[in-house]
């Protein structure tokens, strides 16, 4: 005779003894993280334009009408980074150092988490047809000094595509930020809004340059993560990850003094040396830049430093280590160099 109570009791007893296999929690967490990254990216609002011009204030961008010649292009099917070199010296070391002094004054006035847009009249004189070149961004980003918190943030953005090691060769993590390493990016819309007002204010300013606190963190569509590392000599370098999801064209007027193609194994990179560089006391910037193309987005990597005692070889070695992590698809929780 069929006894439903006994059958139910036997079923419950068997079910209670069933335990998930080893690694079950990790697999669930992995599936959730992949879902969260996918959900967040799909929910992100889009601009209608298929191609955007990203204005990179660190090197004065948007080269329409710029008198120069085509120098370098770094691109995949999603992003094109176009560098143009001036046919004349538009920024010498003295002028660059003067601008750096202005930007430093503004930066010293900002609290953590604040940013500003600065109008530099002397740049407007250099580019009379493109006065938007005279606007530069300055920021004092919120700093994350706990490496575990930084790794969690990078994983939140990129899942297993992100890498945030605690050490890179003999370099140790110091801090991270959700911002560009220098200044920030200013959208065309924000430039058009601020330029007339700041230009008028500068006429009545004794210093010439004027600035205004403005949140530039959301003025462009791309997400940016920057981590800083130091070695035993206290020299500093950064690892920048810019996440590009839509077709994007970035055009930059540069003062490149050196450009060299570098083989990172799975990726072709470029070593770029910019001199003069108005965002650093050293007046110089070195960066190794490459693209990591994913199915739904591209990560633009940059390993760079303004320190005079950091060599090209050191930056290339760091870039090779990061690129090898990507090639091996090592997740953040198991990546090389983690404590």
Provide an overview of this structure.
By secondary structure, the protein is of the alpha+beta class. The protein has one domain (49-334). Helix content is 29%, strand content 29%. It has seven helices and 15 strands. It has helices at residues 4-16, 24-43, 93-108, 121-126, 147-158, 188-203, 312-328, and strands at residues 52-54, 68-75, 79-86, 114-119, 135-140, 167-168, 171-177, 210-213, 223-230, 236-244, 248-254, 256-263, 268-274, 285-293, 298-305. An eight-stranded antiparallel beta sheet has the order 6-7-9-10-15-14-13-12. A four-stranded mixed beta sheet has the order 1-11-3-2, with no helix packed on it. The radius of gyration is 24 Å and the shape is globular.
> What is the number of domains?
1
**How far apart are the termini?**
62 Å
In terms of DSSP E residues, the strand content is: 25-35%
Structural class: alpha+beta
Provide a brief overview of the structure.
The protein has helices at about 5-15, 25-45, 95-110, 120-125, 145-160, 190-205, 310-330, and strands at about 50-55, 70-75, 80-85, 115-120, 135-140, 165-170, 170-175, 210-215, 225-230, 235-245, 250-255, 255-265, 270-275, 285-295, 300-305. With about 350 residues, it is an alpha+beta fold. The longest helix is centred in the N-terminal third of the chain and has 20 residues, at about 25-45.
């Amino acid at each position: 005779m069929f006894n439903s109570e006994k059958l139910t009791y036997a079923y419950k007893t068997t079910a209670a003894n069933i335990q998930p296999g080893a690694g079950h929690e990790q697999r669930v967490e992995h599936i959730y993280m992949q879902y969260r990254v996918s959900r967040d990216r799909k929910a992100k609002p889009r601009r209608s334009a298929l191609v955007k011009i990203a204005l990179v204030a660190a090197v004065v961008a948007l080269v329409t009408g710029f008198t120069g010649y085509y120098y370098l292009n770094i691109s995949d099917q999603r992003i094109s980074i176009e560098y143009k070199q001036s046919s004349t010296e538009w920024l010498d070391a003295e002028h660059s150092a003067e601008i750096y002094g202005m930007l430093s004054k503004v930066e010293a006035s900002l609290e953590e988490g604040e940013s500003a847009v600065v109008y530099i009249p002397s740049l407007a004189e250099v580019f009379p047809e493109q006065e938007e070149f005279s606007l530069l961004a300055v920021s004092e980003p919120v700093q994350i000094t706990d490496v575990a918190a930084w790794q969690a943030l990078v994983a939140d953005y990129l899942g297993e595509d992100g890498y945030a090691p605690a050490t890179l060769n003999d370099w140790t993590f110091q801090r991270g930020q959700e911002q560009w390493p220098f200044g920030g990016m200013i959208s065309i819309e924000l430039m058009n809004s601020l330029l007339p007002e700041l230009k008028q204010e500068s006429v009545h300013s004794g210093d010439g340059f004027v600035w205004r606190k403005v949140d530039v963190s959301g003025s462009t569509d791309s997400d940016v993560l920057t981590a800083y590392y130091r070695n035993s000599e206290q020299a500093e370098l950064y690892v920048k990850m810019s996440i590009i999801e839509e077709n994007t064209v970035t055009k930059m007027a540069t003062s490149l003094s050196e450009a060299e193609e570098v083989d990172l194994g799975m990726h072709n990179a470029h070593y770029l040396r910019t001199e003069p560089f108005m965002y650093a006391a050293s007046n110089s910037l070195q960066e190794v830049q490459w693209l990591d193309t994913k199915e739904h987005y591209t990560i633009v990597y940059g390993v760079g430093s303004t320190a005079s005692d950091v060599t090209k070889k050191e930056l290339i070695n760091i870039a090779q280590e990061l690129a090898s992590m990507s090639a091996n698809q090592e997740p953040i929780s198991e990546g090389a160099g983690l404590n």
